[in-house]
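Homework-ish question, so no full write-ups if that breaks the rules, but can someone show me the predicted structure for this set?
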Amino acid sequence: MAIRFIILTLLFLSSCTIPSLSLYEDQVGLMDWHQQYIGKVKHAVFHTQKTGRKRVVVSTEENVIASLDLRHGEIFWRHVLGINDVVDGIDIALGKYVITLSSDGSTLRAWNLPDGQMVWESFLRGSKHSKPLLLVPTNLKVDKDSLILVSSKGCLHAVSSIDGEILWTRDFAAESVEVQQVIQLDESDQIYVVGYAGSSQFHAYQINAMNGELLNHETAAFSGGFVGDVALVSSDTLVTLDTTRSILVTVSFKNRKIAFQETHLSNLGEDSSGMVEILPSSLTGMFTVKINNYKLFIRLTSEDKLEVVHKVDHETVVSDALVFSEGKEAFAVVEHGGSKVDITVKPGQDWNNNLVQESIEMDHQRGLVHKVFINNYLRTDRSHGFRALIVMEDHSLLLVQQGKIVWNREDALASIIDVTTSELPVEKEGVSVAKVEHSLFEWLKGHMLKLKGTLMLASPEDVAAIQAIRLKSSEKSKMTRDHNGFRKLLIVLTKARKIFALHSGDGRVVWSLLLHKSEACDSPTELNLYQWQTPHHHAMDENPSVLVVGRCGVSSKAPAILSFVDTYTGKELNSFDLVHSAVQVMPLPFTDSTEQRLHLLVDDDRRIHLYPKTSEAISIFQQEFSNIYWYSVEADNGIIKGHAVKSKCAGEVLDDFCFETRVLWSIIFPMESEKIIAAVSRKQNEVVHTQAKVTSEQDVMYKYISKNLLFVATVAPKASGHIGSADPDEAWLVVYLIDTITGRILHRMTHHGAQGPVHAVLSENWVVYHYFNLRAHRYEMSVTEIYDQSRAENKDVLKLVLGKHNLTAPVSSYSRPEITTKSQTYFFTHSVKAVAVTSTAKGITSKQLLIGTIGDQVLALDKRFLDPRRSINPTQAEKEEGIIPLADSLPIIPQSYVTHSLKVEGLRGILTVPAKLESTTLVFAYGVDLFYTRLAPSRTYDSLTEDFSYALLLLTIVALVAAIFVTWVLSEKKELREKWR
Amino acid sequence: MEKGKGVMGSGRRWAVDFTDNSTTPSTRDIADPPGFSRASQDQDDSTLSRQKKDAEANWKSQKAWEVAQAPFKNLMMMGFMMWMAGSTVHLFSIGITFSALWQPISALQGVGKVFEPYKDSKVDLLGPKLLFIALNLGGLALGVWKLNTLGLLPTHASDWVSSLPPALEVEYSGGGIPLQ
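A: Not a homework solution, just the prediction itself:
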């Protein structure tokens, strides 16, 4: 008996080992994928050494500096600078350092070219803002050092390229000169610095670059005034526009004399009305002027006359000049022609001659060419070949060489605005027998290998084969729905106005679509994605579709654009340019007979517009008319307002789908003491399993579960800046929980000495928020749980058994439920970029917080750590319930990083989507990089693990059956022998 | 009981009966000793068998009482095991609890069978049966109590509300910070 007990106890103990969420090394990449991007390229510098790997160094609009392989487009190294550290210029110095100027010209860094290590960093100070300019002359050398000239913040700095030491500084801001260009004179150590003082005074300084000594200073006034960019035509001549933007001014500063020459644009035979601007370029003897929607190439003749060389439409793009072999120059012109793109490389100054002319087929989903960079190489026959790096409208980067696209990168994925998911098509019946047999054979083979692995019989090759099978499982990248709901399409909207559908299995792009640009709208911007139609019950024949809400322009008054995109095919079904604007989009919890979701668009006049515009939609809406509310958070004015639908719009044009609203309530925060910095509401599609929380004493607490709950955080206006800008005494953080129907403040709490930024997540009946505590000099996380006190009386078992309760009856916010809250606060080590919470299909599985840390990783933190019922010495019953003893800070367990060893550079958002399997949730983290994985917060209690050996199970069953048969035969024989005896 | 039977029945191979049961005095030469009456011996014989029967009945009833009290030992044993198993839900405690529930139930089902051998017109089995049933019911109660301590009985409000879905809301609201 005792032995049995001990054995049973041991068995029990071994079955309840501490659950860990970490991965084994060989599980990496099984259900997660990671993709690296760089963003839209702004500058590119080629580095083609004669030996070694050829590479191009680029800087992008996502503040990324990267070195790319010219052969395949892979990233050698990459650095993501901070969100405010915008790259102004890059160049290569000494042939081994990449020099970057960033943060509005205040930070100069040198990176080692082969491996991207930072070599030095210099901070350049200045008093005034000016155009940041970076100049790395090749011939200004002192011993082994060479100079870097940086003009920024009103000063000119000369920096040593070996150690970043500032050799000399000249302040032009003191003379109120705004530097426009820094020009290096050929073959000398003298530089020219030209700039304006005011709008009409032109200054030219001649400076010895070696010591910063001023050699000469000329100034002259031009009555017309200057505006816009300057174009350097030669080392002593530049061209700019006068304030009327109709006269081109040629400024020459030869021989210590400044001369102006005016050329009226109309004299060049051009209509100068409209938008005229000089485009920055570095062509010798030539410059580009953009007038309305065409571009002019204008040449400065030897007699200092201007003449139009060529006129092209605005879609044509010109590269900077490239110096190749003995001072020869070349530049590339890229023109569009139908589905093709023509690339011509022309020698400098000679428009009519072509060095290379190529025409390549271009996918029209890539849009127009935005930028082109060229580079030359020596062919085997010693002639010069050219390759072009092209940046397209959809932010993709292509390398073109010999009329072919060598590689391309979809870098729009670095700038995701919004993400939603879509189901895949249902698997069709009727799979061919041969395929089944083949897959059965494969299946058996795979399982035999796995079995070998389990029994430790596998050779190293087998192990590699097993790993390859696991990683390249065709199951996970199939284009059909699976039973567990793991395979989905991630629909992402990017800043490039391109929509991508990524397969959740391996992250590949299934389709991409550059949104159609209508004639009426010149600069559309995209805002958000919504699930428009998700057929599941009826209307199964329809394809699911998403709604893309955009805006024509950037102001909130700009008219809205709606696009509907089929998520199976990636085709734009429809597109509307609306007459009204859209400041809010509300997906309603109602769908029509074709499973189209009803959406309300709120315009800037507080009118709401119903979509889809069908009579069925309006009848559904009218049934729920009085129960639909909306609220607006005006962060700038410190006002939160609640609105209700009033009546149909009154106007000249009768619009059945437009409704007026009226203000029901408003909460006005005192401007002098509170400033709204965060407003978070619950996810509309979140599923909650139960309304009761059972405590260890079998007591019941009723959760206050309302979707109409808004969490608002306000800080003292003084403390709304960055951390450290305010004293703890004058900083406070006030958090509110507001009912958005009635405007009732359910809960209010003040954290003294705390300040933002606040990141919060609201789920079920709790809110977790992250802020900075100035007194403790640490970040803190607080949790507040909300319980419904008015339901607390429902504790009579008999009544509950008989169903005599009103716990499931629909509730209204006007019934004024009484609530209680419980809060607790903990220290947290990291600062946070984003917070999300896992969501599962039925809401039964326990929750985890997903915290995007400052290190661009995603940390999974059990909600159990943020439980207001934690105490220092929990009772035995509480321990059994799973309450963790209270500690002052939240633990960061290295194994619980969801992103394991990877980084999601520039992390901006985390999306969680429930899978069909209750235990599992799908997580997609995006920033410059993308990361996707599958999480099971309470482990996969409802399915066998991926590496479960079915073959072993099968083998065991077969062996058992065989054993039974053999023993049966043996026993029969023995019995017979007994009987004969 | 089985043992007794064995001794009386199959234990002997042969027997000499010294008692002469013939009642006819003519076959005897010798007169009966004084004070001996043949009739009384006859009478005695019948009283002997009656006595025998009485003893058996006594014995049966005694045994029946013993059988009826047997679950008590079981009860003690079960109690000890339950105490050993503790109050947390795991394989061992569940196994013990269910065996504690199953044993009395199966015993109660077979009450008639258990007391079958002691069936006698002279023996009153009601008492032992009642005791047997009471003790088994006690065992059952112990099992149920154990089930309750394990928290497997829906006796709390929490057991009835934890599966209730959240109440639906009448109103719907949306909105937030305007789209940027």
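Now go work out the reasoning yourself. Hint: Residues 949-981 of chain A form one domain.
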